[in-house]
Automatic annotation (TrEMBL):
GO-annotated molecular function: GTP binding; metal ion binding; molybdenum cofactor guanylyltransferase activity
Binding locations of GTP: 9-11, 22, 50, 68, 101
Species for this entry: Roseicyclus marinus
Catalytic activity: Mo-molybdopterin + GTP + H(+) = Mo-molybdopterin guanine dinucleotide + diphosphate
Protein name, entry field: Molybdenum cofactor guanylyltransferase
Matches recorded under PANTHER family: MOLYBDENUM COFACTOR GUANYLYLTRANSFERASE
Gene coding for it: mobA
Keyword field: Cytoplasm, GTP-binding, Magnesium, Metal-binding, Molybdenum cofactor biosynthesis, Nucleotide-binding, Nucleotidyltransferase, Transferase
Function in brief: Transfers a GMP moiety from GTP to Mo-molybdopterin (Mo-MPT) cofactor (Moco or molybdenum cofactor) to form Mo-molybdopterin guanine dinucleotide (Mo-MGD) cofactor.
GO biological process: bis(molybdopterin guanine dinucleotide)molybdenum biosynthetic process
Pfam (any one): NTP_transf_3
Predominant location: cytoplasm
C-alpha cells in the first residue's frame, strides 16, 4: 500500500482558546501548525489542511485548504470527510489525519496506523492515560477513501461521535507509549500553551 495522503484537521472553533485558529498560536517560537506540518509531512504523500472560513489566511503554507461540506460545524468527522473527498480527487486510497493543535504526535504515526488497520482499512491512534487506561485519539486516524460515501450518509443522518462510526466498521487500534508524556497532548487553553512550552525540550 502506498503512503496515505495527509490531512491536518484545523476546522474547530477553538472556543476554549477564545476563538480563532488554534493552529496559529505560538509554541516554542513557532506556530502549532508548523510543528504539525513538520511531523506529518515525512509520513505521507501530499497534504491538505481542513479549515473553514477564508482560506487565504492559510495560503502561506502552500497547501490545499479544504472546507467542511456540511454546515454548522458538525465536528471532526466532517473534516475527515472533507479530506477524503479531496483525496478521492487525487486518486488516493486513504488519508492519515492529525489535529492542528497537537505538536508532539509520533513521527511513526502513519506507519503504525497502517500496520494496525482493521479489515476495512480504518485505524485510530490510542495511548494510555495517567491511570494506564488506553484512550483513543479519534482525530488521529487512517481512513480509507472507499468509506467516504458511508461516512457522508452517517453524518447527514446526524452522527457526530467518531468512535461510533469507526467501531461500526471494525477499526483497528495503534497504541503508542505515553512515556515521558502523552504524544497526543493537545493545546485547548492558554494554560496548555504554557504546558506545551515546558514539554518542548522533551519532545
Amino acid at each position: 500500500m502506498s503512503a496515505p495522503l495527509g490531512v491536518i484537521l484545523a476546522g474547530g472553533r477553538a472556543t476554549r482558546m477564545g476563538g480563532g485558529d488554534k493552529g496559529l498560536r505560538m509554541v516554542g517560537g513557532r506556530r502549532l501548525i508548523d510543528h504539525v506540518i513538520d511531523r506529518l509531512g515525512p509520513q505521507c504523500g501530499a497534504m491538505a489542511i481542513n479549515a473553514n472560513g477564508d482560506p487565504a489566511r492559510l495560503s502561506e503554507f502552500g497547501l490545499p485548504v479544504v472546507a467542511d461540506s456540511l454546515a454548522d460545524h458538525p465536528g471532526p468527522l466532517a473534516g475527515v470527510l472533507a479530506g477524503l473527498d479531496w483525496a478521492a480527487g487525487q486518486g488516493a486510497t486513504a488519508i492519515v489525519t492529525a489535529a492542528a493543535d497537537t505538536p508532539f504526535f509520533p513521527k511513526d504515526l502513519g506507519a503504525r496506523l497502517m500496520a494496525s488497520a482493521g479489515p476495512s482499512g480504518l485505524c485510530l491512534a490510542a495511548s494510555p492515560d495517567e491511570t494506564g487506561r488506553v484512550q483513543r485519539h479519534p482525530t488521529f486516524g487512517l481512513w480509507p477513501v472507499a468509506l467516504r460515501d458511508d461516512l457522508r450518509a452517517a453524518l447527514t443522518a446526524g452522527l457526530r461521535k467518531i468512535v461510533i462510526w469507526t467501531d461500526g466498521h471494525g477499526a483497528g487500534q495503534a497504541v503508542f507509549d505515553s512515556t515521558p508524556f502523552d504524544p497526543f497532548f493537545n493545546v485547548n487553553t492558554p494554560e496548555d500553551i504554557a504546558a506545551a512550552e515546558a514539554l518542548m525540550g522533551a519532545a
